[in-house]
Each structure stands twice: as structure tokens, then as C-alpha cells.
Amino acid sequence: MCPIDKSLGGPLKVRYISAIIMEYIKCLFDTGIPLQPQLQSMFLGFLVQSKELSVLQQLLQFHILNDTVELAKMLIVYKTTYEAGLNLGLDMLQRLRMHSEIVLTLI
User: Fold this and answer.
1) Which range of residues forms the domain containing residue 72?
2) Would you give per-residue pLDDT tens digits along the chain (107 residues)?
3) How many domains would you assign to the chain?
4) Are 42 and 65 in contact (CB under 8 A)?
């Protein structure tokens, strides 16, 4: 049983998991360890799935999640669940100067 699966009545609440994620990111920043792209993707997926969009917005707004093509594509994919995902993903691709990816997304 997945401890965060709401349908199975998992023992851990989504807010608690979000707080753990934020504390983990803070500890990484405090020790100067860069956040790995795989962890960013995992965090993004969890936050969107659990509808913790305000936390996600803060992580993106303050550039705590590093700009990567993978993260930008994930944001674009989540545009139906997270309305700002398309704009944030395109902005991230613009900052990365990935103009061909922007054109492919818009086509």
C-alpha cells in the first residue's frame, strides 16, 4: 500500500508530505547541494497530483526548481491540471533559449 494514496486511506497526509519536501529542499539549499533534475521531476509530479499548486507556484516563482528542458516539458504536459503550466513551461524554455522546443510546443 502506498502511504500517500488517498483512495486507500494512506496514513500520511498530503500537506505533511509537502512539508517534508519543502524541508528537504531547504536542507539541500542550506548545505549547498544542487537539486537533482530527477528529484525536481518527482516533486513536480507529486505537487500537481496532490493539487498543492500554491507550493509549486512558490518553487517556480523563486527559481528554487532549476530551469531544465525536462521540467519545462512536464509543466506543459500538466497544462490541463495546472492552468499556468503552459505559460510557465514556455517561459522556462525561453530562459533556456530552446526556441525550437517553443515552436514545436505551439504547433
Assistant:
1) 6-106
2) 345 555 545 557 777 888 888 899 899 989 999 888 888 888 888 888 888 888 888 888 888 888 999 999 999 999 888 888 899 999 999 999 999 999 988 88
3) 1
4) no
